[in-house]
Design a protein that fits this description.
6 helices; TIM Barrel; alpha/beta
Length: 213
């Protein structure tokens, strides 16, 4: 059964703390994603990991790095992240992705790899023996609330065909209207941002989505 992962993308410390307070109060949440953006890889910009207070160890935390040539992975370990999601497009060559993933593993964290909607799913075959967790972006990255791209459904099925043992996460555009499209696609987790906050009904929105998976 797939799980729902709340996503947090905030430009400043107070906004981040407010959102963390909201999502950690949701009954049933086990894993939470925090997005980091540098204003270069994507147009938006968030606070840096060095501005994040130590995270509550009662939850699993994943850092989604929408940054160009990410480094200093120790900072994410110190903050309390257990998974670091890299972007394929953020590196000059595949070997650079492998090196970054190796550094993350040495720090006792799990590397994951995301691709943007315009990147062919086939590029992920190269990493199937070294990285097991993959994230497909269902929207153009950089801000929450962007429209869902329907081709993501076929891309999810393609990834599972190319890398059968992949642990698959879909991030972006997930709502009660779109999540049902993935039935049979063997998605392991759905990352949801604005869809959870709608109307301020955090628990209700979470329960509705969780019931659909």
């Amino acid at each position: 059964m797939a799980i729902i992962v709340p996503a947090i993308l905030e430009p400043d410390r107070q906004s981040l703390e407010d959102k963390i307070f909201q999502v950690t109060r949701i009954t049933g949440v086990e894993r939470i994603q925090v997005d980091f953006a540098d204003g270069e890889f994507v147009s938006g910009k968030t606070l840096s990991v060095n501005e994040v207070d130590p995270l509550n160890p009662a939850f699993q935390w994943e850092a989604h790095l929408m940054v160009r040539q990410p480094q200093n992975f120790l900072d994410y370990q110190i903050a309390g992240f257990s998974t670091v999601i890299l972007h394929y497009e953020a590196f000059a060559k595949e070997e650079d992705v492998d090196n970054a993933a190796g550094e993350i593993k040495k720090l006792g964290m799990k590397p994951a790899l995301a691709i943007n909607p315009e990147s062919p799913v086939s590029v992920l075959r190269y990493f199937g023996d070294t990285i097991h967790d993959f994230t497909l972006l269902g929207v153009n990255p950089g801000s929450q609330g962007a429209p869902f791209l329907p081709q993501t459904v076929a891309r999810a099925a393609e990834l599972k065909s190319l890398v059968p043992n992949a642990i698959l996460e879909v991030d972006g555009g997930i709502s009660s209207r779109t999540i049902g499209l993935f039935l049979g696609a063997k998605v392991d987790s759905f990352v949801v941002g604005s869809g959870l906050a709608a109307g301020g009904e955090w628990q209700k929105n979470y329960d509705e989505l969780a019931a659909l998976v």
